[in-house]
Amino acid sequence: PPQGLVASNPPYGHRMESPETMQPVYRALASAIEAVPGSWRVALITSDAAIDTALGRTPAQVVPCFNGPIEASVRLYDKGDAPASLVRIVSLGGVERAVPVAEPNTQQFADRVRKVAKERARWARKAGVTCYRVYDADLPDYAVAIDLYASIDDGLFARVAEYRAPRDVDADRAARRLSDALAVVPAVFDIEPDHVLCKVRHQDKGGGQYRDARGASRVVHVHESGHTFEIDLGGYLDTGLFLDHRPTREMVGRMAQGTRFLNLFAYTGAATVHAAAGGAAGTTTVDMSRTYLEWAKRNMAANGFDAPQHAYVQDDCLQWLASQARAGERFDLVFCDPPTFSNSKRMNARSFDVQRDHVSLLEAVRDILAPDGTIVFSCNLRSFKIDLASLAERGLEATDITAQTIPHDFARTPKIHSCYLVRRSV
Question: What are phi and psi of 63, to 5 degrees?
Answer without folding.
Answer: -115, 115
